[in-house]
Write a structure and sequence with these properties.
Elements (H helix, E strand, L loop, with lengths): L5 E10 L2 E11 L4 E6 L5 H8 L7 E6 L2 E2 L5 H8 L2 E4 L11 H12 L4 H14 L16 H12 L6 E5 L7 H18 L2 E5 L3 H7 L2 E6 L2 E5 L1 H5 L4 H8 L7 H4 L1
Parallel strand pairs: 3-8, 3-9, 6-7, 7-8
Antiparallel strand pairs: 1-2, 1-4, 4-5, 9-10
Helix pairs in contact: 3-4, 3-5, 4-5, 6-7
């Protein structure tokens, strides 16, 4: 289980008596951007939360960066958590903290740094995600939706992780802001050599930045490039990519 940045074998998730993920297998290659799509309620976010350790699998194995997550003790888990970052929908920022304090949470939790260095790193992360310096002292409620996402991304990248998990990063953004966020992710992925696991139903994002796409259907995954999925026979996949909102994929199919 060491060939991939993320390796999942036989993952089963049962919630409320319902099987959400059914003996699912997945490999995410180091350095790629994988987009995960699926119908509402199909289990996309459940899969993400299981991989990052927020939900306990009913069965199966998950390895991140070659480490089987079942083998980690509490101290190892804490150290390992510093190797990946997560951006949840709408940023999931602490409402009682300002942006700078939110970014500093993982820095203070995992590192012992001088206060001046923490402040310098905070400014660096703000610049990396395209936020102005005056955003540092604002609370999440004072930010636009796009700025909250960028602040959440800055916090996710605070420790320079190797893996980045994104849950619907462009949801709720206008088309211009969504395109700018896609470009930001693509630039950061290249400059930081990130492996990105992105749950999204934004077809423009899939076309713009994803190397491969995983479609979650009936608890299983169908994985391939966009071109491969455009020609896949499954009716849901065909409807998803070729439906009325599939304009972004049409030049690929053509």
């Amino acid at each position: 289980m060491t060939a991939s940045a993320i390796s999942v074998r036989g993952l089963t998730m049962r919630l409320g008596g319902r099987t959400i993920l059914d003996a699912l297998d997945l490999d995410v290659r180091a350095g790629e951007v994988l987009g995960v799509v699926g119908a509402s309620g199909s289990g996309k976010s459940v899969l993400l939360r299981a991989i990052v350790g927020l939900l306990r699998p009913s069965a199966g194995r998950i390895a991140l960066l070659g480490r089987d997550q079942r083998t980690l003790d509490a101290d190892e888990r804490r150290d390992f958590d510093a190797r990946f970052g997560v951006l949840f929908q709408d940023g999931a920022l602490f409402s009682s903290l300002n942006v700078a304090q939110n970014i500093q949470v993982p820095l203070r939790e995992h590192l012992e740094l001088a206060e001046a260095l923490i402040e310098e790193l905070t400014r660096l992360k703000l610049a990396m995600v395209g936020l102005p310096m005056d955003a540092a002292l604002k609370r999440p409620a004072e930010l636009s939706g796009g700025m909250r996402k960028r602040a959440g991304l800055a916090r996710a990248l605070a420790l320079d992780p190797e893996l980045l998990f994104l849950d619907e990063p462009t949801a709720g953004l206008d088309p211009i802001s969504a395109a700018e966020f896609d470009s930001l992710i693509a630039d950061l992925q290249r400059s930081m050599r990130l492996t990105v696991f992105m749950v999204t139903n934004d077809l423009d994002s899939l076309v713009a930045i994803c190397d491969r796409i995983a479609a979650l259907i009936d608890g299983k995954l169908v994985v391939g490039t966009l071109e491969e999925l455009l020609h896949h026979p499954h009716p849901w996949i065909r409807a998803y990519f070729s439906g009325p909102r599939g304009r972004a994929t049409r030049h690929v199919a053509g």
